[in-house]
Design goal:
single chain, about 160 residues, mainly beta
């Protein structure tokens, strides 16, 4: 089955089960589909397995910088209905705060839904500039939780 057929089949499954997000990884292919307010978005990536002993001539990744010129920002939205928590456990420090730098894999909060704690990742790179929700507050699907000032690759 080719990749397009897989994506069509996964979207059909999501429609039938009312899922809001689906992620599947098979060997070196990863498919992630999200159903938002404006429809579906999908990410398909082909991963290569890194060598056991990396070559000595690997390129150094450029750092990210926060640009204040032509500032662009995005929001992190709630992927589900539930209760918003800033920390991973009671008494712990918050996952992120205003001024913190986040990347795609940074856990920014927890949303409790049906007694299950769900991590919410930033899925963007930048600086947290505003937190819209208070700890312990009920949130709706698609509700903005954070505003993030977008980071850009530094030019060296």
């Amino acid at each position: 089955m080719d990749i397009i057929e897989k994506v069509k089949q996964l979207i059909k499954i999501m429609d039938e089960s009312e899922l809001s997000e689906l992620e599947i990884q098979e060997e070196a292919t990863k498919i992630k589909i999200k159903k938002g307010i404006s429809g579906y978005s999908q990410t398909i990536s082909h991963q290569t397995i890194p060598p056991l002993y990396p070559a000595q001539t690997q390129q150094i990744e450029q750092p990210f910088v926060i640009s204040r010129e032509n500032e662009s920002s995005s929001e992190i939205y709630s992927p589900m209905v539930g209760t918003f928590y800033r920390s991973t456990a009671p008494g712990e420090s918050p996952c992120v705060g205003v001024g913190d730098f986040v990347n795609e894999e940074t856990v920014v909060c927890i949303i409790e839904a049906m007694k299950i704690m769900n991590e919410v990742k930033a899925e963007t790179v930048g600086e947290i500039v505003e937190i819209y929700v208070q700890d312990g507050e009920a949130v709706e699907y698609g509700q903005p939780l954070f505003r993030v000032r977008q980071a850009k690759k530094a030019t060296i």
